Amino acid sequence: MTCPICDKDTNPAYRPFCSRHCADVDLGKWLNESYAIPAEPADPSEAVQNPQSPDPTTRH
Ligand SMILES: [Zn+2]
């Protein structure tokens, strides 16, 4: 088996990677992807406007 990042021989201590560096690289890829998803709908101006129009006291 080879490292999915750099195709070197796998180190059993860092399976399935060859080194801690490649394990970190793979982890960073996953973190970047999960960060990219919620970045779009988070609109600060919308979050401030929303609670103003429907009044929680009149809406039961
Ligand atoms: Zn590697």
Textual characterization of the structure:
The chain is mainly α. The chain has a domain at 1-38: Erythroid Transcription Factor GATA-1, subunit A (Erythroid Transcription Factor GATA-1, Chain A, 2-Layer Sandwich). The protein has two helices and no strands. It is rod-shaped and about 65 Å long. The model has no long low-confidence stretch (mean pLDDT 80). Bound molecules: zinc ion. Zinc ion (ZN) binds next to loops.
Beta-strand proportion: under 5%
- Kindly state the mean pLDDT as a whole number? 80
- CATH class group of the domain at 1-38: Alpha Beta
Number of strands: 0
What is the string of SSEs from the N terminus onward? Answer: HH
Classify the helix fraction into a percent range.
25-40%
Indicate the overall shape.
Answer: rod-shaped
Count of individual helical segments? 2
Largest sheet, strands/sense/barrel? none
Compact summary:
The protein has 60 residues and is an all-alpha fold. It has two helices and no strands.
Q: Main attributes?
A:
binds zinc ion, 38% helix, 60 residues, mainly alpha, Erythroid Transcription Factor GATA-1, Chain A, rod-shaped
Secondary-structure map with pairings?
Blueprint: H1 20-36, H2 44-49
Bound molecules: zinc ion (ZN).
Residues 3, 5-6, 8, 17-19, 22 line the site of zinc ion.
